[in-house]
Please model this.
Amino acid sequence: MPEQVEKPRSFQEIILRLQTYWAGRGCAVMQPYDMEVGAGTFHPATTLRALGTNPWAAAYVQPSRRPTDGRYGENPNRLQHYYQYQVLIKPSPPDLQDLYLGSLEAIGIDMGLHDIRFVEDDWESPTLGAWGLGWEVWCDGMEVSQFTYFQQVGGHDCHPVSGELTYGLERLAMYVLGVDHVMNMPFNDPQAPIALSYGDVFRQTEQEYSRWNFDLADTDTLLQHFKDAEAECQRILDAPAEDPKTAKRIIMAHPAYDQCIKASHLFNLLDARGVISVTERQVYIGRVRALAKACADAFIQTEAGGWAPEAA
Amino acid sequence: MPDLLIELFSEEIPARMQARAAEDLKKRMTDGLVEAGLTYASAGAFHTPRRLTLTIEELLAASPATREERKGPRVDAPEKALEGFLRSTGLTKDQLEARDDKKGQVWFAVIERKGRPAAEIIAEVLEDVIRNFPWPKSMRWGAGSLRWVRPLHRILCILTDEAGAEVVPMEIDGIAAGDKTEGHRFMGSGPFSVTSFEDYTAKLKQNFVILDAQERADAIWSDATNQAFAQGLELVEDRGLLAEVAGLVEWPVVLVGAIDETFLDLPPEVLTTSMKEHQKFFSVRNPKTGRVEKFVTVANVETSDNGATILAGNQKVLFARLSDAKFFWENDLRVATTEKMLPWLNALDNVTFHAKLGSQGERVQRIAALARELAPVVGADPDLAKQAAKVCKADLSSEMVYEFPELQGLMGRYYAEAAGLPPEVAAACAEHYSPLGPSDEVPAAPVSVAVALADKVDTLTGFWAIEEKPTGSKDPYALRRAALGVVRLVLENNLRLSLSAHLRTAADIVGARDVEDHKAFADIGDLLSFFHDRLKVFLRDKGIRHDVIDACIAMLGNDDLTLLVKRAEALSDVLKTDDGENLIQGFKRANNILTQAEEKDGVSYELDPDPKFAESDEERALFAALDEAGGAISPAIEAEDFAAAMAAMARLRGPIDAFFEAVQVNSDNDIIRRNRLCLLHKIRTICGGVADLTKLEG
Model:
């Protein structure tokens, strides 16, 4: 039997334990990407690094935004801004399931008392041109993580295959801490001199963004930004590989991918404003996917993407 | 003779794929072994979430040696012929024998194959089976290239005889076969070796794995029913869910939990659907009230608190889910009662049904117009039918149906009732999608029937108008199902209607809107024959031959499906009798002779034959019989008593047979010949009253 783990007392303690756990398993603990994204998968440490042959192991928190999920801070577990914890290891290690279960124990889920299940759930991101097979992981009937073996990203077969773990942090933490409404969850130690709840930190922002997302975001501006990001992404990728100033081969996969991320988030905002019809949706998704694929094509031409000068 | 045990141990296999995979493993392994000469007494396949297992009993220890002789080209044949022979036998020239044959010296190949030990063959076959396994979806993992449904971790492969167990040596992508497996992920005590299938199942059980899915399902079922019964409740049967849940656990532990009081006034279908779809819970009903009051969840683990934590967690998740459902239900009820579903109806205008066929709102208008037209035919009040059609799709805009599409129609009934609409209208909301297949129940209430017909006829004419017909296996809009639905609605309600006329009306209604690329129906016949095709499939399953139906389709009024089937049944029945079968032969003979004469002479012999030209008793008897039959058949057909008509026809068998036995139609006497041909024409006319018998095969 594993040693009895003391229960965490706050949201941040759960995050800290995951950081410590995965750092202890050899992952580079990275910081969130500094852009608005819909999920941790969009971080280039996942999307781009899942491509090519170079080994990779990263873990990080990623603030994620889903404008349509805004509920003005009133819904017990729906938020337009929330956190995902993301782990990506390439090639996927043979004991990834056990490593994952170890992380649950690290945050105080006792395998002797809970019912953990791997339930089929094939993951697909139409905007990233990516898919994989895996499960949603259930703890006592609640989905606590997504577990995926990436098969394709940006239209490219993954070789080797990355194992990706995504934890929905608020939901997981609420369960571990026994909290019924996300806003009541202790953010820091409840015994701290200045104890803060999740609501103290985020209730107001949820209200503000819900209002802006749903009613005020200027759709004409957003549409223009979408077009601009799309054009800039293409322009970056169209630039010749050799930089005339340094005479070095510099393919700008990451700056281009930033524009792809931007376009994706702008699409989500437009969706929340309700100005995208069902048929248009598919068109927009296709446009973002085209960008993601172009970025993936560019990335595998870089050294991080496995390109080697001697092989070329 | 040894027994073979194979276990492929992997990460969790999707529940829906397990049973099929176990069968595929059995079939492919046994096929491969038998093909290589290894026969066996019996085989069994098993599956759990983490393993596929195959046991084969009494396998040959080695494949038998074989000796095959093959005759080749003549010794003096060209070099090319010899080369081909050597290639096909895999021998060299010096291994051939020259033997004397009738035509001289001929090369003979003697191919001897030594028997091979079972282990060698098993290793080859198993590798081939693993590498080419027909998973619906498979994946790679790590840095390897092997594909499996999820990462494959162990291969257990042992041959067991009196001397003990031996591992079949093999390796595939770094996974070496062994004699080890492991038990339950959390309750098992690590890897262990096994020596036989009995040993394997026993040790698995000690390690908290029930190998047999049926045993797991039975355990779940009996434990769940007992626990429900002990509380004075009953489990709601759901075989599909049971099979799925049995595929999600290796060690089922049944837990019964309560549904919070606040949710008990939700419609039971909502409770059941939400619990099943999201949580894979069974519903537990109070037999006295019919209400769903509790749930059964099946855990995969025994815990020190007897499942208390697990149950509490599940209850919490359920609470959140049902809070959503209750929120939807209450919002929906408000729209239904205070706004009479108007916002939903308006919202349908913004939902595209099909780019070329407009919105759901436009579709509803069409269905309403059509339902009104159809109402008198099905005995429904036209205004009620129209009203029902107008609201039948309203629930598609409701929050509940958005969340649970499978509740469409059913929610429509609740909301129509809440809106204070007549019960016939509410029933039509629920029933108009039916029947959804060949065995689904067919609505009988007239208003429901009118809307159900209108819905399907509109769908069919619409997609026909935009040339989106089913092709081969592609039927994305389920048009075959819609047509079968119409067929069953008509037949099982005994409806008498001209389908063509209503298709025409529907086509006009579709055509009235600006359908892009709309081609007016120059020919409604193509759509009608699509219905006839569905009817053939439907009746074939009831034992009526397709040519029998063709013979009836050839008659006038073939768009009245009820009439058509009456004819087909009568014809089919009479064909099962000796008289009937022979009558057809006689009829065909008469018809052939007549047709040949008509073609040769370029005239038709439609005059009434005159008995005074009859030369023999047999001919006179036929005259009499035809008169009698004609007298009986006409009124029977008039009364649509096709059985009586066919019976009267069948009585002609004797006279017709006797006539052909005794009489030569093509007499030298022109007058007599013409009279006889007219007599044959009379046979043709009388026998063609129910169906066109020339269409019958054989």
